[in-house]
Prior knowledge:
By secondary structure, the protein is α/β, with parallel strands linked by helices.
Amino acid sequence: MSHTPDLSAYWMPFTANRYFKAHPVLMDSAAGVHYRTVDGREVLDGIAGLWCCNAGHCHPRITAALQEQAGRLDYATAFQLGHPQAFQLAERVAALAPDGLNRVFFTNSGSEAVDTALKIALAWHQVNGEPRRTRLIGRERGYHGAGFGGISVGGIEANRRLFGPLLPGVEHLPHTHAPEHNAFSHGQPEWGAQLADELETLVARHDPASIAAVIVEPVAGSAGVLVPPVGYLEKLRAICDRHGILLIFDEVITGFGRLGTATAAEYFGVRPDLMTVAKALTNGAVPMGAVLVDQRIHDGFMRGPERTIELFHGYTYSGHPLAAAAALAALDVYADEGLFDRAAQLAPVFAAALHELADAPHVTDVRNLGLMGAVELEPRAGAPTQRALDVFRAVLDAGVLVRTTGDSIALTPSLIISEAQIYQITHALRHALETID
Ligand SMILES: Cc1ncc(COP(=O)(O)O)c(C=O)c1O
């Protein structure tokens, strides 16, 4: 059994560091849908790592691919050089995307994928003869990672507040969470498509020819699983088309099976111009992200002398051999184990289990789509987020890991979870809600 190290040097991300270090929980190992803590307790993972281990933890085929790759080629620069796996992976990822999104730029995280997508959108308008298109539009409560681009278009105030003026020329659409109209919706809310018309308002306020791109998560994840109203994404697409604005779907969470399809674009039948992915791309085993780019946009850059660099952008670890090997193995596992279909089959069970919590104490909303769900709680008077944190800790003590975001509890299990394990999670939640004030 491992021992607890000194915790002081590590400044933990998105964590209440002092509280955590006073009440640490450290994982020692994981397999399938379970962790084991350093003190030997088993924890059922209700959030697939962090919305990323879609095939479960330490999948033997991914582990084997990593071990093999680590012994053969640890690293090769991606600048003016390559290795076969990165090219194979690009082809495989493109094959899962909607038609035409068949050019792939590799990054190391979702945040980098978002910044890359924003840069490609801005640069494309330059090379396409519309250099005035520099405005970017995000959405309130959107999460697009922690880079400056991502927090500029993102709409979670706490993530933006301390960091200065951010990118200029950014506007935000309203979010779609309107509990007075759409609380306890099963799947997509019926109410709210008209909120997409706010894009027309923004377009009218600015010169439409000044707007480069709109970026949204098809289903907002980090802000507490906000499911798009029926018809909303279709409207955004139509308005973007009307005004020559690029539409970017941030599919860092929804990519690779979360909704029972390869992408949310496929699920909703709405095709973006650019798509960001990360997380489940490698099943969470090695950091990697990617931007899927419409070939028309990519080809717009492929002009000028053949020996010139077309896009001055990239990362030391773009297409890293270990990440590419993990991703190739993960995509094999998703296909061979039929995990996207499995998620689609489990989705109604997940929805039923989650909505059983509607009458539990403190619950003000339940939301779900595919294998994404959230239970929103009434905030404690004068102490927002604290009730959800108490629930989080109580279910963790009961051997189940969930995630809190504000006063919502988010659930995003691996696609290999069983029906019994789904109920283990929701029963642990009900018990916590009934015992916590
Ligand atoms: C929609 C979305 N975009 C971007 C990111 C950022 O990804 P990363 O944490 O890998 O930088 C996340 C992370 O949760 C996300 O949910």
